[in-house]
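Shipment paperwork, digital attachment
Item: protein structure file
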Amino acid sequence: MNAPMETVFGLLGGLAVFLFGMNMMSEGLQKAAGAKMKSILSLLTSNPVLGVLAGAVATAVLQSSSATTVMAIGFVSARLMTMRQAIAVIFGANIGTTMTAQLMAFKLSDYIWLIVFVGFIVWFIAKDERIKNIGQTVFAFGLLFVGIDTMGAVMKPLAQSEVFLAMIEQVKDIPALGVVVGTVMTLVVQSSSATIAVLQSFASQAGPDGVTSVLGLAGSIPILLGDNIGTTITALLASIGQSRDAKRTAVAHSVFNISGALVFIWFVPVIVQFVQFLTPGPELDVIARQIANAHTTFNVVCTLLWLPFIGVMVKIVTFLVPGKGGEHDQDALVNLDDKIVGQPVFAIRMFGEELQKYCEKVRDMLTALPEAIANKDAAALKALKADCATVEAAETELANYAVELLSAGATSEKQAAEISDLMFIVDAVGRIGARCGEVSALYSERLSSKKQFSDEARQELGESAAMVAEMYGAVLQFLSDQDVASERVLDERRRQIIKRQSKARKDHFRRVSSQQCAPENKAVYNQLLLCLERAGNECSNLVEHGAELSMWGDSLGADRTDSRGGGSDELVEALA
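Attachment content:
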């Protein structure tokens, strides 16, 4: 194989190993961090400083600013976060992503294979899932450096190539050309961390004099600025098909990096002096660390400059993406974003928020049912049937999203158990909504016939429906409070519903016998009572499983242990 092809294949192979290690490390860190990632969400308040901190921490854990940005866009689209909060998070993400470059600057060549071996052994042998995830993270961390070393080795001949040196001289003399090179590199690779790692590896090669860097810090910084511009394309692609506010959030990421690059490009000599002051030493020994520090300096300074002007940023992106924000599919009860299934902690949070809306919709249906029955309101009954179809569609969407979450391969066993518990709620509430729809359809059909129920029968039916609605509302409250006393009260309510249904059947049989009600109504009336009874039974099922489900609570920091040992301690937070 000739030398140029060997260089190209080596560079591509090293880059592939680096990206593989990066993705694996991100996955391992997420699984190892587990519930502690949820504390990041508690920082997402109206305070922009806390939003920046949340974005920085999330990106340091995820090891990808693109992942954090895509996540923020998904949250805006699902209305879990305002655009102002998301912009603060993106500012922080740009700081957090510099952690990767700082890690890459360490000189670990002598220990790479030891790290890979130890990580693999722990990952392969450990039985405890948390230890296994830590082993995976260490193994992936070693692969990062394997990729970097591979790229560095194949780049050495380039440092001696006259043609390549001539091209580098042009980049060093024309900073704008360096920005273009960095932008194109990141657009192709779709990872600023990878292109910065390539930049660090190449800049660490000695030039013709054997003493100074082939590229130098002054030639590296423009390429670094281009890397920061190129990474914004991921956010822009993620916003396609999302709400207008989500598009604005992605544009804010682009405005942040492009504006910073346009300002910094004029002060490259000043930045060089500042970074060299921070990291003195022989150029070849410290150039990788200097590039990492320049990257950190760029993002910290840009954040400090933009932070007081988040309101201005909102106005800019509103101007660039005009129209009313926050639009969604008005026919859809839930809005889920499949772009964040790779971050299960946050995806489960979103799932829980949408599930809560789903549960509340069924509560509204049950609340409206008794009045519609009592008033013989055909329009209200028709609306309830339409609501039933909406709930059914939402149930399908939630179920599909749960399957997508599990099949993404990023969930831990504990998170998989949470998703299973959440789906129990989806199924049970869906059946309650279906029973409500059946009652509406049956009663509406009876209203259109000549043989209608007597006033007494209609009153008893309405009372039964009201008892079920009251119990369902109490069940939702119980799942929130986990009050043992409430559990006993709910069990008593279930028995009362059964007694009420039994009495209603006997009363209706008496009315049919005394010809107060048409005999044709008996079967329909019993069917109506059976539907309500089944809805009450589903409420009982939710109560019986309540201790395990821990559906949603009012604290993101709650620590509850699942009675099965699998753990639903995060499930409280999922719907908080």
